[in-house]
């Protein structure tokens, strides 16, 4: 059995990939040959994850031949010949002519994926009848809410390391002080979430939230942060998958709402709480380490 790895399938699918034609030729030749071709569920999921990142730009194609059967993972165990993993160099050494082309996008793989033990056919992997496939959600809403909740927990933990003497410390004159970093982190999550949902940034809402945060001390900021996990669960939980896939444009190029959540809200948390962590280290907290920055907890005491 031939079991192509992720890079072989991705190169065969993407017409902008290096040596794309050679990989397509090899794949079609392999599907037409007597030796079985197997795609493990692990490899299939890897292909999906890679293609989802470029599906807007790439409208590449994979050839399917007749009623050729493509094995799933359990079929590998029953194959007396074992599995032959195909490297890039081996793949480009083979060639054939491709005549049948089908569009390759995330939904093709979604439709082609079957439970353990089931067979995939060329019909299952054919393009869907509708012209605007919704695609796959790699990062679920629950995972997003969980990630935001974790970030809020890290910020609350770092607040406990700020003292009255270090609240106004700033590493350089133009940087935010420790308490200003906390205020920014308190504001950005909910306000940017609302902007992403609405598809437009509301400067007045940001100003109002900033004014509220500026009037609070560390205890008040922590109390406000304590409400935000439930706020995220309510407001993001109410969004549908179509809402998440919907394209908007805030400060950069057009992206889905889901991509905005990752590249703006989550990225802001990671960037500014790291800045706060570094600032606290400069304040003399040499005990702070990876546990504090990424887990939001003190490292266990060594016995």
Name of the top-level CATH class of the largest domain: Mainly Alpha
Largest sheet entry: 2 strands, parallel
Q: Sketch the topology as an H/E string, one letter per element.
A: EHHEHEEHEHEHHHHHHHEEHH
Oligomer type: single chain
Quick structural overview:
The chain is mainly alpha-helical. Helix content is 52%, strand content 6%. The chain has a two-stranded parallel sheet. It has a two-stranded parallel ribbon with strand order 2-4. Strands 3-6 form a two-stranded antiparallel ribbon.
Task: Please tag this protein with its features.
303 residues; mainly alpha; Four Helix Bundle (Hemerythrin (Met), subunit A); 2 domains; two-stranded parallel ribbon; 14 helices; elongated
How would you explain this protein's 3D organization?
The protein folds into two domains: 2-112, no CATH class; 141-295, Up-down Bundle (Four Helix Bundle (Hemerythrin (Met), subunit A)), CATH 1.20.120.450. Helices cover 52% and strands 6% of the residues. It has helices spanning 6-13, 20-32, 41-54, 73-77, 88-92, 106-112, 141-159, 178-198, 203-214, 218-225, 228-237, 241-245, 257-282, 290-295; strands at residues 2-4, 37-38, 61-62, 70-71, 84-86, 102-103, 247-248, 255-256. It has a two-stranded parallel ribbon with strand order 1-5. Strands 2-4 form a two-stranded parallel sheet. A two-stranded antiparallel sheet has the order 3-6. A hairpin with a 6-residue loop joins β7 and β8. α1 packs parallel to α3 and α8 (178-198) packs parallel to α10 (218-225). The longest helix is centred in the C-terminal third of the chain and has 26 residues, at 257-282. Residues 55-136 have low confidence and may be disordered.
């Amino acid at each position: 059995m031939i079991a192509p790895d992720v890079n072989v399938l991705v190169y065969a699918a993407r017409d902008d990939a290096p040596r794309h034609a050679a990989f397509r030729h090899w794949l079609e030749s392999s599907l037409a040959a007597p030796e079985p071709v197997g795609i493990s569920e692990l490899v299939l999921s890897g292909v999906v994850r890679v293609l989802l990142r470029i599906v807007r730009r790439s409208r590449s194609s994979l050839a399917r031949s007749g009623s050729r059967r493509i094995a799933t993972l359990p079929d590998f165990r029953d194959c007396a010949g074992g599995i032959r993993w195909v490297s890039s160099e081996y793949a480009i050494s083979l060639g054939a002519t491709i005549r049948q082309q089908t569009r390759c996008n995330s939904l093709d793989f979604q439709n082609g994926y079957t439970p353990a033990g089931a067979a995939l056919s060329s019909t299952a992997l054919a393009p869907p009848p509708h012209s605007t496939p919704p695609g796959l959600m790699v990062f679920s809403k629950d995972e997003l809410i969980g990630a935001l909740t974790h970030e809020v927990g890290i910020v609350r933990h770092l607040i406990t390391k700020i003292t009255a003497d270090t609240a106004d410390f700033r590493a350089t004159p133009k940087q935010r002080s420790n308490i200003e970093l906390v205020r920014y982190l308190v504001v950005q999550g909910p306000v940017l979430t609302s902007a992403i949902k609405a598809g437009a940034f509301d400067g007045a809402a940001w100003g109002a939230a900033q004014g509220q945060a500026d009037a609070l001390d560390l205890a008040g900021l922590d109390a406000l942060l304590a409400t935000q996990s439930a706020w995220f669960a309510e407001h993001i939980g109410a969004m549908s998958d179509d809402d998440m896939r919907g394209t908007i444009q805030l400060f950069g190029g057009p992206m889905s709402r889901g991509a905005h959540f990752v590249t703006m809200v989550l990225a802001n948390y990671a960037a500014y709480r790291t800045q706060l962590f570094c600032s606290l280290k400069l304040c003399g907290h040499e005990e702070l380490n990876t546990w504090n920055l990424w887990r939001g907890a003190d490292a266990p005491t060594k016995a």
